[in-house]
Each structure stands twice: as structure tokens, then as C-alpha cells.
Specification:
Length: 388
Amino acid sequence: MDYDVIIIGGGASGLACAVTLLKGAECKVCVLEAGERLGRKLAATGNGQGNISNTELGSSHYHGGNVPLAEKIACVDPYEGARFFNCLFAPDDKGRIYPAGKQASALVDSLNFTLKSLGAEIYTASRVTDITRINGGFAVNTANKTFTSRFVALCAGGKAQKHFGTDGSAYALVRKFGHAVTPLYPSLVQLKTDVTHIKTLKGIRAECNATAVVGGKRVKTVRGDVIFTEYGVSGNAVFTLSAYLTDKPDSVVSLEFLPDFSAEDIEKDVNAKINAGYPVAELLSGTLHNQIGRAVVRRAQSPEAKEIVRVLKNFTLEVKGTLGFDYAQVTKGGIDMRGVTDGLESKFAPGLYFAGEILDIDGDCGGYNLHWAFTGGKRAALSILEKL
């Protein structure tokens, strides 16, 4: 065999797997990356600032086919992924963990340095076209070369953001071994909505409580920014809610403006303006962004304070879809977790392992997906080390 382990994919999970292996034993490790350089998606995370985890870990932040297993792997130590890097980390006021330098590209540089110092062999511009079983291991084919190894870790990402090389083609590599792939949806993505009541709000940002409503049931509420667009809504709050909505029909986003004020206080403010002779369209002037206030009043179709406040506290937008995988941060769905052991090894092809976004686990916005990638890559490596 050419190598002990071939890792397919030079993203967060693949790099974490490689570092863990090389620090854990004397072994030959090869990383095959389809793109021109390692860690491109990692370098862009957190708007380029490197949000790698979150202090508020818990199973409620993960979705997919085997959340209890994801909880065992990822919901133990929020700084587990941070230990792959030679720098300081700290959380912000929302629990999002960043490097102190707030530069994601520096994290990639750190991993590259570590891998080279540990002796990893790295091949970029090497898209894998096939994986086959051979006696005692695997043959991994690229367009120009065939590599062999005892173990393979498939860490090739999902279908989101194909400009980073994750176009969904990696799923086909393992279907022949018997692995199923659950339906794929874009997640942490902008939402297309009914725009009837927000046509005048393009480009306006509002901090509010945003709630995902599915089949009339409220399933998730988050406080954060919502940005109004020509197609619907964007912003951090929307990205978080999308994880609960993109695969669900009959879904709605409900926005609560002025979440720090009670309905009673806002109603008093509106009545004061009514008594002062304000035009109906300006009954929320100074209390809410003028354009949003006018949109609320128009939708209320009533000069009565109670009805205006009711709409303000439950401004609903029917979800029509998303901007798709090219704009999504992660993929919902993936390799069915029922075909994977607790050590992230294939039940159908022993010696084949998985980690990261390619599996049917996705997380909320706020560092959860990168944390899953790092901890999953580490778990797969530890499982391999037990057999080396």
C-alpha cells in the first residue's frame, strides 16, 4: 500500500482527521484535495473572521439522521476544534468562538504548517473519481494517478457553495458500497418569501425576534438581524431559521419587531400619536424604522392601535424557497447515518470512514457546522488509530 490512510477532502474535517492521525501514530497520510489549495471554505467562515464553534453546545443545534451520535461527538467541549490551532480563541457576546486575531485565513495557515511539519503528503487539484476495494485496502483514483491505502476517510463536503469545490459529486463515490444519501437541501441560506408586504423595504436591516413556523406550529425562535431583499429575507436570523424550514412545506417566517417593548407599551405610543393627530401612515414614526412602520400600518389596514401592534408583533412572510446551494453555507442531508458506526466507519465497507458535511448532520448558524467538522474528523481518526 502507498499509504496507511488517504483522506479525500482538504477542508476542516479532512485536515482535523489528518492532524489527529499524524499526532497519534507514525503513519503515512495522504490528503487529496480537488481544489487548488486547502481550507478554502474554512478561510471564509464567519465572514472571514473564523467562527469555529459556539459555547452553547447541545443537540438542539443539530439536525439530521442521528443527532444522538452527533451529540456524543460534538457536544462535549466547545474548544475541541480550537486545539488544532496555535493561537488564542475567545467567544463573543453570542457565544460564537473566534480566534483572537479574527482572521480565518490564519487558521488555514496554521493547519498547513502543522500538516507539513508532521509529514503529510498533500495533493491539490486532485479530484477523486473512484474508490474501489482491493485486497487489504482501497484504491483511490484521480484523473492522473491511482493511490492505495489501508484506510480511506471521505471528508469531501456536501453540495453547498460549489465555488469551493463542493458540488455534491462525492456522494456518488460511496453509493456502490451500499450507502444511501438522504434528500439534499440548502441550509443556512437566504429565504425566498412572499414579497407583497415588503416591496418597499429592500436593503433595510432590522433586529427582531424571528420565528420559524411549520404547519402552524412554532418550531424555532431566534433574535438577530433580518435584511429585506427583492426576493425575500436574509441576515443571521434568517440563516439560522433556514435550517428548520428549507425541507418543510407550508412554512412561514414570523417577525416580531421591537422585541424589547411590550405590546401594551407600543399600543400606548401609537394611541398618543393618534391623539396628537398624526397621519395614519406615520403612527409608528420614530418608534420603528419609518419604512418598516409604514409597511406595518399598510398591512394592518386599520387605524386602530391594537391591530397595528398585532401586525407589528407577528409580521408573517410565507416561505417560497431559498436562493439554492450556490448561496447556502451548508448542506442539509447527506450520507445516511444508519450506514455508519459510532466511530464514523462504513457498515458496508470496513476501513472506509466519513466526517463533516458529507454526512446527514447539519448545524445551526454560529459555528456549529465547523465544530461538527473538526470533532467528526477527529473521531474518524481516533477510530482508525485503534486499527493501525
